[in-house]
Amino acid sequence: MAAEREARRLLGTSFSRRCSPPPPPLLLLLLLLGRPASGAAAVRSGSPPQSAGASVRTFTPFYFLVEPVDTLSVRGSSVILNCSAYSEPSPKIEWKKDGTFLNLVSDDRRQLLPDGSLFISNVVHSKHNKPDEGFYQCVATVDNLGTIVSRTAKLTVAGLPRFTSQPEPSSVYVGNSAILNCEVNADLVPFVRWEQNRQPLLLDDRVVKLPSGTLVISNVTEGDGGLYRCVVESGGPPKSTDEAELKVLQDPEEVLNLEFLMRPSSVTKVVGQSVVLPCVASGLPAPMIRWMKNEEVLDTESSERLVLLAGGSLEISDVTEDDAGTYFCIADNGNKTVEAQAELTVQVPPEFLKQPANIYAHESMDIVFECEVTGKPTPAVKWVKNGDVVIPSDYFKIVKEHNLQVLGLVKSDEGFYQCIAENDVGNAQAGAQLIILEHDVAIPTLPPTSLTSATTDHLAPATTGPLPSAPRDVVASLVSTRFIKLTWRTPASDPHGDNLTYSVFYTKEGIARERVENTSQPGEMQVTIQNLMPATVYIFKVMAQNKHGSGESSAPLRVETQPEVQLPGPAPNIRAYATSPTSVTITWETPLSGNGEIQNYKLYYMEKGTDKEQDIDVSSHSYTINGLKKYTEYSFRVVAYNKHGPGVSTQDVAVRTLSDVPSAAPQNLSLEVRNSKSIVIHWQPPSSATQNGQITGYKIRYRKASRKSDVTETLVTGTQLSQLIEGLDRGTEYNFRVAALTVNGTGPATDWLSAETFESDLDETRVPEVPSSLHVRPLVTSIVVSWTPPENQNIVVRGYAIGYGIGSPHAQTIKVDYKQRYYTIENLDPSSHYVITLKAFNNVGEGIPLYESAVTRPHTVPDPTPMMPPVGVQASILSHDTIRITWADNSLPKHQKITDSRYYTVRWKTNIPANTKYKNANATTLSYLVTGLKPNTLYEFSVMVTKGRRSSTWSMTAHGATFELVPTSPPKDVTVVSKEGKPRTIIVNWQPPSEANGKITGYIIYYSTDVNAEIHDWVIEPVVGNRLTHQIQELTLDTPYYFKIQARNSKGMGPMSEAVQFRTPKALGSAGKGSRLPDLGSDYKPPMSGSNSPHGSPTSPLDSNMLLVIIVSVGVITIVVVVIIAVFCTRRTTSHQKKKRAACKSANGSHKYKGNCKDVKPPDLWIHHERLELKPIDKSPDPNPVMTDTPIPRNSQDITPVDNSMDSNIHQRRNSYRGHESEDSMSTLAGRRGMRPKMMMPFDSQPPQQSVRNTPSTDTMPASSSQTCCTDHQDPEGATSSSYLASSQEEDSGQSLPTAHVRPSHPLKSFAVPAIPPPGPPIYDPALPSTPLLSQQALNHHIHSVKTASIGTLGRSRPPMPVVVPSAPEVQETTRMLEDSESSYEPDELTKEMAHLEGLMKDLNAITTA
Asked: Which of 546, 647, 795, 956 is at a distance of 20 to 30 A from 881, taking alpha carbons?
């Protein structure tokens, strides 16, 4: 494998990229025998490297000694273009013209000289045939080494003479200047000469020929008159213009207008050339010419490079870049001044700041040839390899503007590389050699600027030893548009791989050029390959290296990068130039990589020194921005847009707007009277934002105050900021003003400022004397100081210095004008002692001070009387978060209209939590809308009024509670635990929502085995009130359940909590303590929601033997009761009077009603029970019984435990939200029962603080007992009853109070002896609707509990009535329900009672059937 790879590499191919079939084995063998194996190939293939005998090739000197230069020739002459190159061996020289090689063998006019120069004889040039004019380049080649090319030289052949302008007859006054035009094409200017009267004209300092061919004669004399003509000699016969006569006139002794005969024009020159800026003016008196450059006067006398030619033209020799700028030609003849300007642009040919350096490298490396050039205009750079232009591609890239980067070197990349820079005025070249060494040869020197970071290969000679195998599991873990991240595992030969380094070789599919990327540190098993192309297939291989060399390569991995949205590239050739003081024009070209149609451009610009960038949408390739600041530098950039979005921004270009006249006057103008005849004027420049250019000077205008028309003007140049005005009159007032100047003109002037000269020249050789007096007048925060001048008026006083401070006069100093006689010192402290000093001063110094002290007045401000607080503050609740506060103001008129600037401050807070701070708001009306309050929260409000500095106290508080809102947060801290001993029962616990927004009236528990099920498919378990725990029974064992809880208040339901998962325990082998589950029958339905116990109170299981005893006991008692009832029925009496007496006894004895027997009619026992209902209401322990639709929790300790098996099979859970169902059942019941009024139903009493569901229940007694005489089992509301209070609470105080539900199925059922129920909670019938009852508070534990029940009568509801529930009597006490309060009955009386009851039963049966 290694041999084949080395052979392919020697053949100039790449192992990973060659698509052709492998060479024959014989050829491979010959190649291997004829050449030692490469170290790199050996390392890559896994065999030991061969470093012995390998040598480093040296760089070969190969360069040009002489290169051709630009040449001007004439038709028919001979030309030599010099070229000479050095190399060992000698190079072969060839020539190119306009990019094409010349065939010099068969050319009789052009031949190659021995040194390599090109000789052209008899240059040919005509209007339609110009074979010799063009660009020539010398090419030097050394076989097996490379090729270099010289700079490009332009050969220009002067054309046939053509005169664009000819001299014209003219006249000139003696002493003035004259010009004679002769303009030809630029190539023929060197061949132009002048003749006067057909004789060659001699040129001197007074007579000059300009570069354009124009003749200028200055200081004309009479001898200059004559006939002039222009002659051109360019190899052929001379050609001349027509003759023109120049007449010389005598001095007319009158003033002639000053004007330019020739103005300077803008010109562009190359560094090192000479330039002439023509400027000729005429007029009488004869003008003087002077030059300025960029507002600086040019000294042509002392400069060696600047010469003033005849007539005033300026010649600059050996032009440099510093000579560029604007030149002003100023002609002045004493009467008038005229000015003309021209721009000189200096161009610089390309020059190398850094030339390419020779480079050693290995195959697959990346290298960079560096090349830095300068020039003006900026040179364009191209690269040439062995004489051929390098076209940028994926592997040859231009980076950092001018550098050439070569990626993935191959052997054929060897040779000479040249950087060729070219601009409008010239070109230059510099080259370097690239040598690619064998992989077993170390690079002698590794220039850090030439090899990229990706090719820092391990070049130390390898030692002999085992090589690593191929890395395993090479994968592309991350693939993007421009990079791919590769990862791999260590080779099998070295599982740890801590000392291994790795090289990743990759190439683009179909390209025979391989690149390499190395890991950054030993043991690293990933690398990111950058700078890839989008949507391109690459082939990757990874190779491990140890201290002995490179091991085997991994299998090729083929990866394709992702496609990329194509955005435009930067717009080329962006240029910006100022067109006015407030506008700039920007131009650019279409991006080279548009990647689709360009839709528009966005032009960004920003003032220099700021960070606020603005943008403009532009559809063309140029735009003029107006409204810019004058003489301000701006930066500009352009971004192209296509359908994919914005492209790459251009580089910023900066330009400064043109200057203009200043837009503001100078600042801080001041006058200083020096003496009786002079005044000094001082000023500061205008602010920088208003200068609008470089300030070149100032214009001072002054006048006498009495003569405003006579104005004198003085010009100050440069940056001088003061001027002495002399020659003024004594004791005279003058007005002064100053204006700033730029090259564009004069800006606005300051206001007039006045000063008066002295009457006489006073003495200023000594300081002034002490002021004659000083007076102070203190105020609260200021002191007024007044004074008189010194008595000696002969000494100059320039002003007065006032010093002051608390206890010392040196804290502050103020200087005032000499004319001032008083001053007010401000911003002082009240009630403070100040010391004040006054001194007169002049230019010599300050005089003797005068002292005074003063105490400022105290600060006494009367306290304003407080205002009356607002009254009648009311809070009107508008919503759950808004309350309107209104009030009245007794300090206002009766109509309560506010006409002054008073305002009201409303404050409010809530007392929960206790440390809540007040919030405030101001109002200008008598009401304020407070928003953003919390729902269901009580707030207190108060108001105060403020007027000016007067404020009232806070008003009395008003309170208001916001309305409730549905809960806005779910219950929190939801937990689910399994109940001990009951694996199918769980307990759900939670905490109230943090944002209940009202009183919580209940919760709904949702649970399901599928967390993703729709919410209407979840099982619902209601919880009433604010209870925070609940039991859920009959769950499936070993099953995951999900629980959510939702809180509700009077406004509705809040959000659900997050689902909580709980898995029920696995089965333990029995249904609870060894008992099996009873047979539920075919009609049994699994529980859906709810629980027998409304709050899920725990019940303790009972022993099965106890259950058997209870059932047997109930059966025996039931049989005894049936027998007793049968005996009663057989011993009734037939006497109607006995019935009445028995009924009367029953009424008076059992019901505490006193009166005649005639008050209660026997047939109306059911109908007239209203009397029994209404009276006990007053004695109810709970005066306000309330109905609810939800079950109410009761204490778990009050419920008698039952066996778990009975509890889980008999109890049925039922949804309590059945209000509509109960209402329908009630209506149906009323229709079936006709007009039957309410009946009073005795209930079993129960312990206090227990809730009773008024739910029809299935009796637990045997069928023979429970169905005796029963006919109304189908009536679902037959169990409804009213409340009743016992007549004698003392009788039953000692009785136990078990719970029972009684459903009368016969008119006498309510008076029959009820069966003794088994201990335990009430037993419900799931087929019947339930109406829950609120628990009533018992008077004490020994008094009957009072319960409420609702009885539906004809479809209307009545208020709940109190009911006394007596305990179930024993068998021997049965007759106590039918007798009065006596303790026993005689046999005859018992017989009469039974007869009376039998009659009543018949009457009630008749009523019921009706």
From this structure: 956
Which of 572, 574, 610, 578 lies closest to 594, judged by CA? 572
User: Residue 497 to residues 455, 522, 526, 965: CA-CA distances in angstroms?
Assistant: 22, 8, 13, 68
- Per-residue pLDDT reduced to its tens digit, 102-138: 888 878 888 888 888 998 888 887 777 788 888 999 9
For 261-288, letters b (16+ CB in 10 Å) and e give: bbbbeebebebeeebbbbbbbbbbebbe
Pinpoint the alpha helices (H) of 588-719. Answer: 688-691
Q: What angle do CA 249, 253, 259 make, to 5 degrees?
A: 70
Confidence class of residue 1103 from pLDDT cuts 50, 70 and 90?
low
> What is d(CA 3, CA 587) in angstroms, rounded to the nearest whole number?
60
Q: Which two tokens stand for residue 272?
A: 């090192």
**Model pLDDT, residue 887:** 93
Both tokens of residue 241?
Answer: 């213009």
d(CA 1033, CA 1000): 25
Higher-pLDDT residue of 765 and 1370 is 765
Q: pTM to 2 decimals? A: 0.39
Site of tokens 């339901």: 1053
Q: Which of 170, 179, 326 is nearest to 260 (CA)?
A: 179
d(CA 1113, CA 1318): 9
Q: How far apart are the first and last CA of the chain?
A: 116
User: Helix (H, G, I), strand (E, B), or coil: what is residue 1327?
Assistant: coil
Q: Is 200 exposed, middle or buried (0-12, 13-18, 19+ CB in 10 A)?
A: exposed
What separation in angstroms does the CA of 1138 have from each of 813, 1340, 1376?
130, 41, 18
Segment 776-794 shows an average pLDDT of: 92
Chain centre distance of CA 585:
33
3-state secondary structure of 1102: coil
Rounded distance, CA 673 to CA 759, Å? Answer: 11
Which segment of 91-105, 396-410, 429-443, 1199-1213 scores lowest on mean pLDDT?
1199-1213
Angle between helix axes 2-10 and 25-34 (nearest 10 degrees) is 80
The number of C-alpha atoms within 13 Å of 679 and in the hemisphere containing its C-beta is: 27
Whole-angstrom Cα distance, residue 661 to residue 651?
32
Pairing mode, strands 812-817 and 118-120: unpaired
pLDDT (average), residues 401-429:
88
- Say if residue 700's pLDDT is above 90: yes
Enter the tokens of residue 900. Answer: 């002054």
Residue 167, preceding bond cis, omega within 30 degrees? no
Written as six digits, the tokens of 1261 are 């007694």
What is the reported pLDDT for 823?
Answer: 94
Distance, in Å, from the CA atom of 767 to the CA atom of 809, rounded to the nearest integer, reads: 20
Is the N-terminal amide bond of 869 cis, ω within 30° of 0?
A: no
Q: Return d(Cα 874, Cα 942) in angstroms, integer.
A: 9
Strands 679-684 and 667-673: antiparallel
Distance separating alpha carbons of residues 1223 and 638, to the nearest angstrom:
80
The owner of tokens 């001063």 is: 841
Which two three-digit tokens encode residue 593?
Answer: 């990589």
Other CB atoms within 10 A of residue 968 CB: 13
- 183-184 and 753-756 beta bridge pairing: unpaired
Dig out the tokens for 773 from the structure: 């007096």
Rounded to an integer, what distance in angstroms lies between the CA atom of residue 1002 and that of residue 1053?
A: 9
Cβ atoms of 1271 and 1407 within 8 Å: the answer is no
SS3 content of the chain, % helix, strand, coil (to 5): 10, 35, 50
Name residue 228's beta-bridge partners. 196, 244
Please report, as a single letter, which amino acid is at residue 1294. Answer: G
Reported residue count of the chain is: 1410
Using the structure block, give the residue that is written with the tokens 């997050």: 1058
Contacts of 1336 (CB under 8 A, 6+ apart): 1181, 1182, 1185, 1345, 1346, 1347, 1348, 1362
Handedness of CA 31, 35, 41, 43 (dihedral sign): positive
